[in-house]
Amino acid sequence: MCAQALFTGILITAVGCDADDVCIDDGDSPKLTVQLRYPDSTTELLDTISFRRYQADGTFHPDSATFSNVSSFSMPVVLNEEKQMKFRVRYGNDVQIKEVINGVPTVVETIKAKTDDITLTYQSTGNRYTSKACGFGIYFQEIGITTTNNWIKSSETVTKDITDGSTTNLIVYTDPRF
């Protein structure tokens, strides 16, 4: 009887919850969202992308991510005194060329993946209401984005504000690796 009452209580509580009652990070956190495309095209390019975020002292922050077979990816944006963030973005993976030498497969050459730095600046921040459970969240206003253009042929800034993690902010045009 006690178990039945507990189950009924849980059921009533679960049914009584609105989607706005639980705070989850489902695209509400501000992220720089980048879409990959073929040059001079609206066709999306699928590939493997890795990124690392620089810290103020020039070293890499421990957070990093690799996205396989994607046409877009998102990188976290955080507040700092410089109002600037820099990301090192790798296009694909290192490729090892192997030959069989004396019956043993041996790496004879490693072709490093191309990298680019993406620098994000912002002029100011603001607060916006996200949900009843989460309350207000920060967003970044008047962003500027530059790239070092190693594998990135060109780029286009799509929005001037970063308000969530699902809206594309930057389109990167590049050739496929192979």
Description:
The chain has 178 residues and is mainly beta. It has one domain (31-173). It has one helix spanning 2-16, and strands at residues 31-37, 47-54, 60-70, 72-76, 84-91, 95-101, 104-111, 114-131, 135-147, 154-157, 170-173. The protein has a five-stranded antiparallel beta sheet with strand order 3-2-5-8-9, with no helix packed on it. A hairpin with a 3-residue loop joins strand 8 and strand 9. The model has no long low-confidence stretch (mean pLDDT 82).
In terms of topology, how is this protein built?
Elements: H1 2-16, E1 31-37, E2 47-54, E3 60-70, E4 72-76, E5 84-91, E6 95-101, E7 104-111, E8 114-131, E9 135-147, E10 154-157, E11 170-173
* Mean pLDDT across all amino acids: 82
Main sheet makeup = 5 strands, antiparallel
Query: Which percent band covers the strand fraction?
Result: over 45%
| Strand numbers in spatial order across the main sheet | 3-2-5-8-9
First and last CA, distance = 66 Å
Based on Cα principal axes, name the global outline. elongated
Poorly predicted parts: none
Task: Determine the structural class based on helices, strands and strand pairing.
Answer: mainly beta
- Provide the succession of SSEs: HEEEEEEEEEEE
Number of helix segments? Answer: 1
Tally of domains: 1
Radius of gyration: 22 Å
Tell me the number of strands: 11
Main features:
178 residues; 5-stranded antiparallel sheet
Provide a concise account of the structure shown:
This protein has 178 residues and is mainly beta.
